[in-house]
Design goal:
The complex is a heterodimer.
Chain A: E1 14-19, H1 23-35, E2 41-47, E3 51-53, E4 72-74, E5 83-87, E6 90-94, E7 99-102, E8 107-109, E9 112-115, E10 119-121, E11 138-139, H2 144-155, E12 160-166, H3 176-190, E13 197-202, H4 212-224, E14 228-230, E15 235-239, E16 244-247, E17 252-254, E18 257-261, E19 264-266, H5 268-271, E20 298-300, H6 313-331, E21 344-351, E22 354-360, E23 369-373, E24 377-381, H7 386-403
Helix pairs in contact in A: 1-6
Chain B: E1 2-6, E2 9-13, H1 27-36, H2 44-60, H3 66-72, H4 77-83, H5 88-96
Antiparallel strand pairs in B: 1-2
Helix pairs in contact in B: 2-5
Classes of the chains: A alpha/beta, B mainly alpha.
């Protein structure tokens, strides 16, 4: 919200360094730029390349619903005037020195640091994932190259066992593997070969989704579509030569085509930065203020943070409001405020031009109801509708033109609301 | 929430049997919970994992995930599945007397 108005923070120019020019980094850079004069605040965004990927689009690439080249734009061009964009690989952050060291030897000194470097795919941590069969019968869709390669494999897939597997949580967009199953079911029906394909979702979770009400509903949707669900499957290795996934406790799932979502970790520089991250390389932050536990002038946003909420663009957008206000507070010598509640919402594509919408936070699981208004909606929660599908499609231009510039979406609050949600009755049934 | 008695000690547990108050825990309680879960006698390797989990939980407020266990407990993931079949992180947390690891999403 801009209702607080512009803050006068300083006497000398303060320097903010933002690592990462993706969803979170771009949003907060633009928002901070708008709220602060150039004479007061210098903003530098550093990233290793100039390719900003619209990540929600990756899901659609394998089904030919999105062109690979259509979801990438220049990072620099998404940043407002008055923001310095640097190309460079971060070697490490030295918290004691208040400096970011780049691999080319340059140092960027900061008064406040925002880590927005997302997550990294760790395919190499799963034995055999990039071994025999990779690109032939074993694929993924979490990078542009992987999603594009899978496109050609799916076009040619006429029958057999399709296994969709997430190796372990946390992953970006935890509903994406489910959406992939729903879209595959639809895609294969359209192609007239669905009856020749067995689809299975293999998950380490004990249900289709982590939260009980949504887990049951989404599990039911898999069942209706004849999609198998293997729960508590902790992938130990991918055996491409023998066409099977093998779990740590020696369960096996045979496949003809495997779509594997690899392990995720933080950006590699986090592990090289003393005290900054947790075991997985995510930055340990206060879950409500987004301030790093390691240093008061360091913050993290989005996938890079170790928050117990979804790694998703909507969560990042809701975090941005809290984060920007807290960066300004800390630079002005004040204490941060804990206003982020874990709010996230996601459209779940279910095929046949329909989608679901879920809306939740740290405390409240996804529930049925209406969003954003209690009676008017217009979007139904946890139920398939065409309107939600249109919402998902409308999200793409909204992303480039409203979210990245750091603006509010009219009618959508950063804090979750219970209005319109149906709380589960005692006993668990909604 | 209900009360269970393990090895003569009364402890508060949640609906799934995870202890609510880690300070009510001792190694005898751990042995009794393990026996109930069908694990049999706790070896030194079991206890290494259990103590690692407790230390991490008491230090950070969250139970470590299986990946953290594999990287930092000194016991590789494969062996964790042998020691604590099915869900090592969940089962070890139960025996360690700490709350159920949050499904992190």
């Amino acid at each position: 919200m801009r209702s607080r108005g512009r803050r006068r923070i300083l006497y000398r120019v303060k320097r903010i360094v933002i690592i990462g020019g993706g969803t979170g980094g771009t949003m907060v850079a633009n928002r901070l730029r708008r709220e602060n004069d150039v004479e007061e605040l210098q903003i530098t965004v550093v990233d290793r390349d100039d390719a900003h990927l619209y990540q929600p689009g990756l899901l659609f690439v394998p089904f030919g619903l999105e062109r690979p080249e259509g979801i990438v734009r220049s990072r620099r061009e998404q940043l407002h005037n008055g923001i310095d964009f640097r190309l460079g690989e971060v070697d490490r952050v030295e918290l004691e020195e208040n400096a970011v060291h780049l691999a080319d030897g340059t140092d960027l000194a900061y008064d406040a640091l925002i880590v927005a470097s997302g997550s990294t795919l760790l395919s190499e941590e799963t034995d055999g994932l990039r071994g025999p069969g990779w690109g032939e019968s074993v694929f993924s869709f979490y990078s542009l190259d992987d999603a594009t390669a899978l496109r050609w494999a799916l076009v040619d897939f006429d029958g057999g066992r399709l296994v969709v597997n997430l190796v372990d949580m946390p992953i970006k967009c935890p509903v994406a593997p489910l959406e992939f199953c729903f879209l595959a079911d639809w895609f294969l029906r359209e192609r007239g070969v669905r009856d020749k394909v067995e689809i299975t979702l293999a998950t380490p979770l004990d249900a289709a989704f982590t939260k009980p009400v949504a887990g049951e509903h989404l599990g039911g949707m898999l069942e209706e579509r004849g999609i198998g669900l293997e729960t508590e499957f902790a992938t130990g290795r991918v055996d491409g030569a023998e066409h099977r996934l093998v779990s740590w406790d020696e369960r096996e799932i045979p496949f003809d085509l495997a779509v594997v979502v690899p392990l995720h970790g933080g950006a590699p520089f986090v592990a090289r930065s003393p005290g900054l991250g947790d075991d997985l390389g995510f930055v340990d932050v206060d879950v409500h203020t987004l301030q790093a536990k390691a240093a008061p002038n360091v913050f993290a946003i989005g996938d890079a943070a170790s928050l117990p909420t979804s790694k998703a663009g909507s969560a990042t957008h809701f975090e941005a409001e809290t984060l920007c206000a807290n960066v300004e507070r800390v630079l002005g010598g004040e204490e941060p405020e804990g206003s982020y509640d874990g709010h996230v919402n996601c459209f779940i594509e279910s095929g046949f031009h329909k989608a679901l919408l879920i809306d939740f936070n740290y405390e409240v699981e996804p529930l049925p109801g209406r969003y954003p208004e209690a009676h008017l909606g217009p979007l139904p929660l946890l139920r398939e509708s065409r309107l939600n599908h249109l919402g998902k499609l409308a999200f793409e231009p909204l992303y480039w033109h409203v979210l990245l510039p750091g603006r509010e979406v009219p009618g959508i609050d950063a804090t979750m609301s219970m209005a319109g949600k149906q709380a589960p009755k005692q006993g668990g049934e909604p | 929430m209900s009360t269970m008695t393990y090895a003569g000690t009364a402890v508060e547990v949640d609906a799934e049997g995870f202890m609510i108050d880690p300070s009510q825990w001792n190694e005898d309680v751990a042995a009794a919970i393990a026996a109930e879960a069908g694990i049999g006698e706790l070896s030194d390797r079991h206890l290494q994992v259990v103590h690692f989990m407790r230390d991490r939980y008491l230090e950070s407020g969250t139970a470590p995930s299986i990946r953290t266990l594999g990287k930092a407990s000194g016991v590789p993931i494969k062996e964790l599945y042998e020691l604590f079949p099915k869900g090592p992180a969940k089962l070890a947390a139960k025996i360690a007397g700490i709350p159920k690891p949050r499904g992190c999403i």
